[in-house]
Automatic annotation (TrEMBL):
The keyword Amino-acid biosynthesis applies. Belongs to the TrpF family. Pathway: Amino-acid biosynthesis; L-tryptophan biosynthesis; L-tryptophan from chorismate: step 3/5. It comes from Natronosporangium hydrolyticum. The gene is trpF. This is N-(5'-phosphoribosyl)anthranilate isomerase. Keywords: Amino-acid biosynthesis, Aromatic amino acid biosynthesis, Isomerase, Tryptophan biosynthesis.
Length: 222
């Protein structure tokens, strides 16, 4: 989210959490700290949405300062921050904060697989499973993940997880086995929520919400 008017659109479409990109070098939705604070206020003002600080940064002091100044309690660590950073952020931010650590999946599996237990011990509340492209791009790549690679990873997790990576309303059925997983907590979508003009589209967002919720219900009813 980069504009105030998008808050109501996302709330009306059934969204729960809204990412605000901060310290994401070269990111298409990169925001200054002041802009994050403004948009976080707008997000909370909907009465339905909660803001999430999405960052590539491993600078503990800057992250803690930004979280406190903006009043944001959700943090998504979207790069390769080590478990030690998660541990110190948990110590500094305390239990009110929800820390989401992204796990990057490529053709060969999860890059951080061997560090998952350490992230859990360090205090990560949730994991977000997303793609890493062969050329090193992370986040909002629009590249779908292979369900056959993702399922063994999420089966190995002790924590709840969110799913990302090229998700759309149309491909929800391909991930039925993951959507119905007992530790599945939701999806994280950027590219698939936008129209041809690159802006958030209420039809796209609403379609995502409907299809993924239906898919989760059907899998759990079987």
């Amino acid at each position: 989210m980069t504009h105030h008017h998008e808050g109501e659109l996302l709330a009306d479409a059934g969204v729960d959490l809204v990412g605000l990109w901060w310290a994401v070098p070269g990111g298409h939705a990169e925001l200054s700290s002041d802009r994050v604070a403004e948009l976080a206020t707008t997000v909370r003002g909907t009465g339905q949405l909660a803001p999430v600080l999405v960052t590539f940064s491993a600078d503990i002091e800057r992250i803690v300062s930004t979280m406190r100044e903006t009043g944001i309690s959700w943090l998504q660590l979207h790069a390769y921050q080590p478990p030690a950073v998660v541990r110190e952020l948990r110590r500094r931010l305390g239990s009110p904060a929800t820390i989401v650590k992204v796990l990057h999946v490529g053709a060969g599996g999860c890059v951080e697989q061997r560090f998952v237990p350490a992230y859990t011990r360090a205090g990560a509340d949730l994991f977000l499973v997303d793609g890493a492209t062969p050329d090193g791009r992370l986040g909002s790549t629009g590249v779908p993940l292979d369900p056959a690679v993702v399922l063994p990873l999420v089966d190995s997790l002790d924590q709840g997880f969110l799913l990302a990576g090229g998700l759309t309303a149309a491909n929800a059925g391909e991930y039925a086995g993951i959507a119905g997983h007992p530790r599945m907590c939701g999806i994280d979508v950027d590219t698939g929520a936008r129209g041809s003009d690159g802006r958030f589209d209420s039809g796209q967002v609403g379609g995502l919400a409907r299809q993924w919720r239906v898919g989760r219900r059907e899998e759990r009813d079987d």
